[in-house]
From TrEMBL:
Domain PurE, residue spans: 90-222
Domain of life of the organism encoding this protein: Bacteria
UniProt-listed Gene3D superfamilies: 3.40.50.1970
GO molecular function terms listed in the Swiss-Prot or TrEMBL record: hydrolase activity
Organism: Labedaea rhizosphaerae
PANTHER family, per database record: PHOSPHORIBOSYLAMINOIMIDAZOLE CARBOXYLASE-RELATED (PTHR43064), SLL1489 PROTEIN (PTHR43064:SF1)
BP GO annotations: 'de novo' IMP biosynthetic process
Protein name stated in the entry: PurE domain-containing protein
SUPFAM superfamilies, per database record: N5-CAIR mutase (phosphoribosylaminoimidazole carboxylase, PurE)
Amino acid sequence: MADALDLGYATVDLARERRQGLPEVVYGPGKTAEQVVGIVRGLLAANTGPVLATRIEPATAATVLDAVPDGTYDERARLLCWRPAPVRAVRLVVVTAGTSDGPVAAEAAAVATAIGLDVTKVEDVGVAGLHRLLRVRPVLADADCVIVVAGMEGALASAVGGLVAAPVIAVPTSTGYGAALEGVTALLAMLSSCAAGLTVVNIDSGFAAAMAAHRLAMKIEPARKP
């Protein structure tokens, strides 16, 4: 089987599923609907796993789904998906600090669900009301991996990182007033966390967090098999 598909406007990586367990994911911004259609068709033909397109606006999604049937669209997550994976025995909890962090968390949860992780969402448990976080501590403790989505000062990632033994993936968001600097303050706080061992991804990148969880899941699952 060929490792790549040359469409003229894109060279599609057909071998990524063999290397990493998932087909290449299509990044929507900057692409026309017709270009997304061409790439998705190539990926569906050459792979067996889920095919995803991220950051897709509703009008583009409608055009793509007309051309490539049997897909679904999550408007809040801006995610197109074909052939979602069955649920695997890897428990992921996606935690948000506040309601304003919801769209980024929605992307993380939707991508993680599409690739087969067993996702639980815990919303609006920021550190300004620490009792809310402590109330869901049993849910966090049961997770194989936790994604923490927070803006403002980003403190929720440190709080969760101090409560659980599982890997914690922190996602800074651009939520916040002036000194939040469009997410830079949360990013630097998460990178400087005293809760050792946090993984920190880019600002507003729920997708990157879900893919980091996927990489962990690829190692967790084989280790559990007898």
